[in-house]
Amino acid sequence: MGGTVSVLRQPADERLAARPRRAPADPSDRGVRTLDTVPALADLLPGGALRTGAAYSITGSTALTMALLAGPSAAGAWCGVVGLPGFAAAAGADLGIDLGRLVFVPEPGPRWLSVVGALIDALTVVVVRPPTAVGDAEAARIAARLRQREAILVSCGPWPRCDAQLTVTESAWLGVGSGHGHLTARQTTVVAKGRGTAGRQRETRLWLPDPDGIVRIASEEATDTASNATTTNTPSPTHTTPAWIQEAVG
Amino acid sequence: MRTLAVWCPDWPVTAAGRAAGCPPEAPIAVLDRGRVLACSASARHEGVRRGLRTRDAQSRCPELVVLPYDPALDAHAYESIVTAVEAMTPGVQVVRPGTCAIRARGPSRYYGGETEAGIAVSDRLADLDLPDSRIGIADGPFAAEQAARATIRGDDRIRVIPGGAAAGFLAPLPVEVLGEPDLASLLRRLGLRTLGAFASLSPTDVLARFGPEGAFVHRLACGLDGQPVVARQPPPELNHHVDFEPPVDRVDQVAFAIRDSADRFVADLAGHGLVCTTVRIRVTTESGAGPERRWLHPRWFDAADIVDRVRWQLQGVGPAAGDLDSAVVSVWLEPDEVDPIGVHADGLWGGGPDEHIHRALARVQSMLGHEAVAVAVPSGGRGPADRQTFVPWGDRPLPSRPVEPPWPGSLPTPLPTTVFPQPRPAIVVAVDGRPVGVSSRGTLTGEPAQFCPDGRSPDRLQPVAAWTGPWPVEERWWDTDAARRLARFQIVGVDGSAWLLTVENRQWWTEASYD
Q: In this structure, is the dihedral angle defined by the CA atoms of residues B317, B323, B327 and B333, taken in order, positive or negative?
């Protein structure tokens, strides 16, 4: 009966579309629901998408966190950001996050775990920067809650027994010379490490973002120009002073 | 029908001045769409007139207090006056905020005469800090109101037009008092400048030429006002208050005591088929009026929500200690905006999709305080922190600065992904080891060679791989408090990290990071 009800409710509001149905009738199909991310990140994640009930850990980049949120958020999921007072919402919006469905708890204080728990009950993706090290018992409690509520946790920092760990190991910015230009694009190397049998390390070169502001996989030739640009400190040949600088100075 | 009209001159000024806490003798002007709508007596004395533009009014009276016109505030403030008059005599009709009409027969019998009734009402209003109210008594509301207005030219505050004498009293008045600007302009062009001239026309001709509306105002001009005073239905009492005797000085005690009232508040509204979407909470403390605030709700308030709001209001921002500066004497709950209950009814399959989200966020808010849960609204500005405004969950999402102006000199995309809430001190040095500075003409004293985005560890300087700047910003130079003059730089370190640094008064700050 419960299944029937959720099927009926599903089309009632399209904002629900990305939120997986709760309490599936068959417990065996728990955890197989996935939420699509931007295509560039699919290769890095085990299974090619974000799995509900899973915890992910990202180190070294807020932009990568935003890119990870962009897929579910654009598809209608509610996201929460806990303990990141510096999270630049405007940059997130540029990367594809819908600010109308993004909630911030910048200073959760010492009770941050209860806050995360309360948000997992309602939101689909919860981003947290743990202010203290997380114990295995706490992580297990959160994991159970994630599975029960079919939510996803993204930790900006280490998280015990996470499903995948993404680390930005290298980044090279384009567009800046010595005293001219402005940051336009960045190439990064992202190393992804899964858990258990999926523990094989995958390394990908990513535009984070590319000159058009899009996150995508970098092809080989682009990598070369990027490394040239940073080592020799020359601006990219196509670069001209943008209109806004002239406006600001003149 | 004998009617007693009560007129409070310059009511918008009185209402706005009281809300803004101005003394009644201060020169005040209330503005509507850039023009003076009403002004206080002292402002009028200085030459301020209705219809003047703001700048002209201020040039005539430099110390003029300018307040915006708010019709809702006008009506709300008049409510207490009507209630006071209603307590003396039933059957009060509010003509407009500032003017009301009463059936004169009852009070004149009770007080022993029409003038005596007028004096009684006037004295009651003087008790309410309205010493300048005017009373007019005549046949019908229109003539009575004109009689009240006519007192402005005399010394007496009460004007009684005997029965049947209304036409004679109205005859010399200009046609503009009918309140029909189009008709008045037409009558003037026809050479009919006074009500007497208009009244002398034959009613049949007026009906044929000006239609039913013209015939109606013609009857008014003739002093044959047949309108009855339609007594208003006193609105249901929906405000609730709790008095504490003796006063309590702990937030949890107040919150506990308010619970019952909050339950009744919500139940009363529900009894009228309403739910409250905005509540105004007033707190009086031993040291006088305490904090007052409007609270919005994304859906509607239930009792627990109201208790939470009272608690947050008493605590101020964030979860503070339970003790208050001054003991609470009473708490008032007033519904500011209400909706029919049907608008917010739960659907057959439960509430809307956002209901569970709202519940969870309200739980976090009751744990951490109202401001702790926020949503971001895009806003305009040059610096990275100006590009978003954080608004507490439940409040109206309005950006602090509009996005639309072009904001020349704003940051180019991609925007920094981490904006430090408090800029961190930074160090940028040239090749010779001296700090890099920017001259007042925007030139650098040296090229940045090494930098440290976190100035608290100055021994860990990192070579600069690439840099750009300075991007000078000079904001609000006309405002001594908000004026800022700084230069922004983008600096990339050899480790590939990129930062947005600013230099202001020779001090370097790390404003944001492209991480």
A: positive
Full residue range of the structural domain in which residue B188 is found: 166-221
DSSP A21: P
Q: Quick check: A250 contacting B, CB < 8 Å?
A: no
Q: Which residue has the higher pLDDT, A73 or B179?
A: A73
Nearest to A105 among B354, B372, B515 (CB): B372
Q: Say yes or no to pLDDT of B193 above 50.
A: yes
Query: Do B367 and A111 count as a contact with CB atoms less than 8 A apart?
Result: yes
CA distance A64 to A61: 5
Confidence of residue B323 (pLDDT cuts 50, 70, 90): low
Closest-approach residue (CA) in chain B for A2: B349
CATH number assigned to the domain comprising residue B201: 1.10.150.20
Task: Name the B residues in 34-93 with CB < 8 Å from any A CB.
Answer: none
- Alpha-helical (H) ranges within A75-232 are 89-94, 112-120, 136-149, 220-232
pLDDT by residue (tens digit) across B331-346? 989 888 888 887 776 6
Write the DSSP assignment of B77-104 as a string of letters: HHHHHHHHHHHHSS-EEEEETTEEEEES
Dist. CA A88–CA B512, nearest whole Å:
9
pLDDT digits (tens, 9 = 90+) for B221-274: 888 877 788 887 777 788 888 898 888 888 888 889 999 999 999 999 999 888
pTM of the full predicted structure?
A: 0.69
Picking from A8, A86, A247, the nearest residue to B421 by CB comes out as A86
Q: Which CATH architecture has domain A31-164?
A: 3-Layer(aba) Sandwich (3.40)
Distances (CA, A) of B258 to B266, B282, B307: 12, 13, 7
Segments of B40-194 assigned E as strands = 65-68, 92-96, 99-103, 134-139, 158-160
Q: Which residues of A touch B363 (CB under 8 A)?
A: 118
